[in-house]
Amino acid sequence: MSNEPANSDGPTNSSGKQTPDSDQNLLPILGQPTSRRTALKAAGAALGLAAFGKAVSPLMVIPENVSVDEFLQRHYKELTDEDKQKIFTRMEKETKESYGAEVSISDPQPIPGVRYGYAISLSKCNGNGKCMEACHEENNHHRGVDQSYIRILEMPKGTMDMEQGNTTYDHTVPQDDKFYMPVQCQQCDNPPCVTVCPVEATWKEDDGIVVVDYNWCIGCRYCEAACPYHARRFNWEQPEIPAEEVNPDQGYLSNRIRPQGTMEKCHFCLHRTREGRLPACLEACPTGARVFGDLNDPESPINYVLQNKRVFVLKEELGTQPSFFYFFD
């Protein structure tokens, strides 16, 4: 005698039990490739808002400071120019409400044929930290911490072993028996951080800059673990910035104020460099240790360094192929 229920025409789940009507509505959604947010939106429509919220609540909580529209926003790469403009307008309004500052959010695109590179003279860098201060201010970092995309390692002369470096020194610089090595995102041509991201929230653009879509990032921190240069930062709390200190010149993929619970990193100040300006850290360097330019331009300052100096990259054996170089004069 069969133990199946009288009405067994519907689909069954993995345990052989018939699925409820709401689960049947979800089967077409779960059975095909889809984006995280498209799936959530479709699931919500199938189950109804109340039932959907109850179903996913053990798995995911939408932060209080994130609107439903923001959470369900499509991937940056899927957005039309009209979509982007609506999002920028919304973000500008939210920034005004939250921080009391008028800002302009733009979306500068890679310049065709340009691939950026950066180099630092370890003979000239003296560890003064002005680059870190400029990064902190330019990129609208949380003022509650001394956050920067740059770390300066004070290294014993005679070694390149980064484990012997110290980033917490507070004495006068330079010290006679030390040299100083700033480390930030290396903008790898083969970036491991991109490979491990489960939701494609980070990718490499045509000009070589690795970017993060803060609205798409789920904060899993896989990219932080994968980066061999400790170049990723996690937003543990909502940034606090006085209105007068907010940098109003903001890029969607660069220095706009990031939400709590998301990853961020150096982006070569793309809101500046794609407009023909230099990175803020370079402009702030008082020793002239920093060199930036187009690797595809044989007459660029960066190519002069590569052709005429003794150049090396960090952790070359890992095959990340950095676009960030170090040299001695």
TrEMBL record:
<dbReference type="Pfam" id="PF13247">
    <property type="entry name" value="Fer4_11"/>
</dbReference>
<keyword id="KW-0411">Iron-sulfur</keyword>
<feature type="domain" description="4Fe-4S ferredoxin-type">
    <location>
        <begin position="208"/>
        <end position="237"/>
    </location>
</feature>
<keyword id="KW-0004">4Fe-4S</keyword>
<feature type="compositionally biased region" description="Polar residues">
    <location>
        <begin position="1"/>
        <end position="25"/>
    </location>
</feature>
<dbReference type="InterPro" id="IPR050954">
    <property type="entry name" value="ET_IronSulfur_Cluster-Binding"/>
</dbReference>
<feature type="region of interest" description="Disordered">
    <location>
        <begin position="1"/>
        <end position="29"/>
    </location>
</feature>
<dbReference type="GO" id="GO:0046872">
    <property type="term" value="F:metal ion binding"/>
</dbReference>
<dbReference type="InterPro" id="IPR017900">
    <property type="entry name" value="4Fe4S_Fe_S_CS"/>
</dbReference>
<dbReference type="GO" id="GO:0051539">
    <property type="term" value="F:4 iron, 4 sulfur cluster binding"/>
</dbReference>
<dbReference type="InterPro" id="IPR006311">
    <property type="entry name" value="TAT_signal"/>
</dbReference>
<keyword id="KW-0408">Iron</keyword>
<keyword id="KW-0479">Metal-binding</keyword>
<protein>
    <submittedName>
        <fullName>Tetrathionate reductase subunit B</fullName>
    </submittedName>
</protein>
<dbReference type="InterPro" id="IPR017896">
    <property type="entry name" value="4Fe4S_Fe-S-bd"/>
</dbReference>
